[in-house]
Write a structure and sequence with these properties.
- By secondary structure, the protein is α/β, with parallel strands linked by helices.
- The protein is elongated.
Length: 664
């Protein structure tokens, strides 16, 4: 019997709007596989027909062959009983091949479409969307959507064909017993609904308990968590806390097993009622010579199959609508509008000289909900656990409405540096920098080859300014030009090729140093790689490693120090060889040796290029052709070092507090 349908209800009570447009769009993903689906229908029909033959063979054996003592016919029927399951098995293998081709093909199509779409979303989307939610949509929801085409619809068709065939055969055998067998059907439906709801709730509780236990493991068994537990001497407390969560998982598992067993027992009893009625009345008809013993045996075999098929059809609407929820979640990403788009006739930047102009540019981090994903209640996911130790579990109704920018404890690139977004308010570490508009009327020109230094308090808008240049965001108003071309009028690829950017927090892939470097230039030769590494003062260090350039840097480059990661990032930009450099010159947290190496590398990197640098060192400021002093999203002062000192304004204050004691 088909009892698995209730499991599809465990994701919650979400009910999609089953519109004609949604169904047509779902079926559109099955179009490339129509021949495979048609083949499955043929195999379903064949296996259904073969399954109907076995009871008829038994009836013929009991009523005709055995009483007649026809050994030859008995052998023929015996061989037929062997051939039927063999043929059925072979056809099932073919059906499984067709089914998996459809299912895996749909998964491939959906994932490829989703990934391509996500790659083109703006940075704002990623700073306001959990990566865990994206992974769920690329994995769980894609599989759920695929299940609708390759399993749910196929199961519905299979059960429908089987039910019709069984009704016809049973009605042909004995119409009165067929009517009696149907009378028991309401008991099946009522029992399935009530017990299914109970099992669904228990399954949900089990997933929540597992999420709490897994979240606890995730918090305490990573390097940071393990270090904290040891430093504060909380090993015994964490062992006790984990045992409590594991005990909850154990208890719910036992309860689910017991109630699940009860579920099957009750269904067995309900089936027994129908079977008893059929065999009781059938036995009476056999005694009164209305029909033969073989007929009632065949009818009994059909009866069990009928109940299982009807049960599957009873749960089909729930399973189908649940699959549609997955499709809706997938389509939501596909339908999200792109914030950063490329014009149809965009021009390609060629022979870039490097002139950069900001013309009255303003920007705010206003979050348009139409550009973001809707909140989803996901039972059993670690990201739904808001308080790992106190045991609170997040739901769609009580989750914080302010969205963090990362997942698994990782912040976004923006929040890790200067700006943090929340409900249209820019909040920074400095309360005096809080404001509604991130940037306001920013105007300046960087001529080709010039060095422009951005200075100002933390949260003044320096990083946001640099993020507008490669179109990680688009200005709310105003224009940014490169070589007198509006950046919105050029192709995204040529824009990215023309700009090199090193952020304050360097990101490296969990791969070799070589792979991380050649990400800037895929076809770079070994000589080019080494030349870039030497320019960044990192070649000798790499060569001292056991595997040299083939050394794995680890997750986010954790096996390297901050200075080593910075120099690899510089080498990567040198290998890219852009005309415009955007650098967050973060050396304040490095040791003196690493800082000296990076400062020396920076001079080489910036030589002959237009450079926009968020300056942290006096040497960079003194070398700048123009210093822009930012405060509360505005340029409040501009000029050379000597000119700004003479103004005795904000720059002079910053110089006194941050730079005066430095050696140049």
């Amino acid at each position: 019997m088909h009892y698995g349908w209730w499991m599809s209800m465990r994701q919650g009570d979400e009910k999609p709007q089953l519109t004609r447009e949604l169904l047509l769009r779902v079926l559109n993903y099955a179009k490339p596989y129509w021949w495979h689906i048609a083949g499955m229908l043929v195999t379903i029909t064949l296996t259904t027909g073969l399954s109907l033959l076995t009871p008829l063979i038994f009836r013929n054996m009991i009523d005709v062959v055995i009483p007649a003592k026809d050994v030859n016919q008995l052998i023929v029927l015996g061989v037929a009983l062997l051939l039927i399951p063999a043929l059925t098995g072979g056809i099932n293998v073919i059906q499984r091949r067709l089914n998996s081709t459809v299912g895996e093909g749909v998964i491939y199509d959906l994932r490829s479409t989703l990934f391509a779409r996500l790659q083109r979303m703006s940075l704002r989307f990623f700073t306001n969307t959990k990566s865990g939610e994206l992974m769920s949509r690329l994995n769980s929801d894609v599989v759920g959507a695929q299940n609708a085409i390759s399993n749910t619809i196929v199961n519905i068709v299979t059960n429908l064909i089987e039910a019709i065939a069984l009704f016809i055969v049973m009605f042909t055998l004995e119409w009165r017993l067929t009517l009696i067998s149907i009378l028991i059907l309401p008991l099946f439906i009522i029992t399935a609904q009530r017990l299914g709801n109970i099992l669904r709730d228990i399954a949900r509780q089990g997933m929540e308990s597992n999420a709490q236990m897994n979240a606890h493991m995730n918090e305490t068994l990573n390097i940071g968590g393990a270090l904290l537990v040891k430093l504060f001497g909380r090993i015994n407390q964490e062992e006790k806390r984990f045992r409590e969560r594991a005990a909850s998982v154990r208890d719910i598992g036992i309860r689910r097993a017991v109630i699940g067993s009860t579920f099957f027992v009750i269904f067995g009893l309900v089936s027994a009622v129908g079977t008893a009625l059929v065999y009781g009345l059938g036995g009476y008809y056999v005694i009164t010579d209305v029909f033969t013993v073989g007929t009632i045996v065949a009818f009994g075999s059909y009866l069990g199959n009928l109940y299982g098929t009807l049960q599957g059809l009873a749960g089909a609407p729930v399973e189908f609508t649940t699959s549609m929820v997955s499709f809706e979640r997938v389509f939501e990403i596909i339908d999200l509008p792109q914030e950063i788009t490329e014009k149809e006739n965009a021009i390609e930047l060629k022979n870039v000289k490097g002139k950069l102009e900001f013309d009255n540019v303003s920007f705010n981090y206003h979050i348009d909900s139409s550009l973001l994903l809707k909140d989803v209640k996901r039972y059993g996911k670690m990201e739904n656990v808001t308080a790992v130790f106190s045991g609170n579990i997040k739901t769609a109704d009580d989750r914080p409405q302010t969205k963090d920018s990362g997942s698994n404890g990782q912040s976004s690139a923006v929040s890790r540096q200067e700006e943090r977004t929340a409900s249209n308010l820019i909040e920074t570490d400095s309360a005096s920098q809080a404001r509604d508009v991130a940037l306001e009327n920013i105007s300046f020109i960087a001529e080709s080859g010039q060095l422009i230094a951005l200075v100002g308090p933390s949260g003044a808008g320096k990083t946001t300014t640099t993020y507008l240049i490669p179109r990680l965001y688009d200005p709310t108003s105003g224009v940014i030009r490169i070589d007198d071309h509006n950046v919105k009028d050029v192709t995204l690829d040529s824009l990215a090729h023309s700009i090199g950017m090193v952020t304050q927090e360097t990101y490296l892939f969990h791969d070799t140093i070589r792979t991380n470097l050649t990400y800037a230039k895929m076809d770079a030769t070994q000589a080019e790689i080494e030349s870039a590494a030497r320019a960044a003062n990192i070649h000798n260090f790499i060569m001292d490693l056991p595997d040299g350039y083939d050394t794995i840097v680890g997750e986010r480059g954790y096996r390297l120090s901050g200075g080593e990661k910075q120099r690899i990032a510089l080498a990567r930009v040198i290998l890219k060889d852009p005309r415009i450099l955007v650098l967050d010159e973060a050396t304040s947290h490095l040791d003196s040796e690493s800082e000296s190496l990076i400062q020396e590398a920076l001079k080489r990197v910036m030589a002959g290029r237009t450079s926009i640098v968020i300056a942290h060192r006096l040497s960079t400021i003194l070398a700048a052709d123009l210093i822009l002093v930012m405060d509360k999203g505005k340029i409040v002062e501009r000029g050379t070092h000597d000119e700004l000192i003479g103004m005795n304004g904000l720059y002079a204050q910053l110089y006194e507090t941050q730079f005066r004691g430095e050696k140049v």
